[in-house]
Design goal:
It is found in: Membrane. This protein is mostly helical and 143 residues long. The chain has five helices and no strands.
């Protein structure tokens, strides 16, 4: 009779230990699953917004490159030697390129695939955060 009573007690104690261990593990698993879900949702959103837009600046960029090529081909300097002509051309282009170049031309919608967007999302949430541990102490957060 005492053995029959002992078995349920042992089972209850083991189940309490199991529940305790699962409850300690649950926040960590939930955090990891939340980060994975956040990253996947962000990747879908970024690839849809950034990747589906048609590149309207590509023609403008090619026109800019064509103008540079024409300037280089048709450049006639006032000096007689080729070396000074080249120096004049380089100085002219050094002044002209920063004025007319647009940084948006470097953005490519085809770079925003799902996996490229997933990489971007993971990079963002692994690098953005409190920089000083003093911030955590002021907010009463344990680490």
């Amino acid at each position: 009779m005492s053995m029959a009573v002992g078995k349920p007690r042992v089972f209850v104690e083991k189940s309490k230990k199991c529940v305790s261990k699962l409850w300690k593990l649950f926040p960590h698993v939930f955090l990891i699953l939340s980060l994975i879900g956040y990253a996947v949702f962000g990747a879908v959103l970024f690839s849809y917004i950034e990747g589906s837009s048609a590149s309207t600046t590509e023609r403008e960029y090619h026109a800019f490159l064509g103008e540079l090529v024409r300037e280089i081909q048709n450049y006639t300097g006032n000096s007689s030697s080729n070396f000074t002509q080249e120096q004049d051309l380089v100085k002219h282009l050094e002044n002209e390129i920063p004025k007319r170049f647009k940084s948006i031309w470097l953005q490519r919608p085809d770079n925003w695939t799902f996996f490229g967007s997933l990489f971007f999302c993971c990079t963002v949430f692994t690098t953005v955060g409190p920089r000083k541990r003093g911030w955590l102490r002021r907010a009463n957060v344990s680490y």
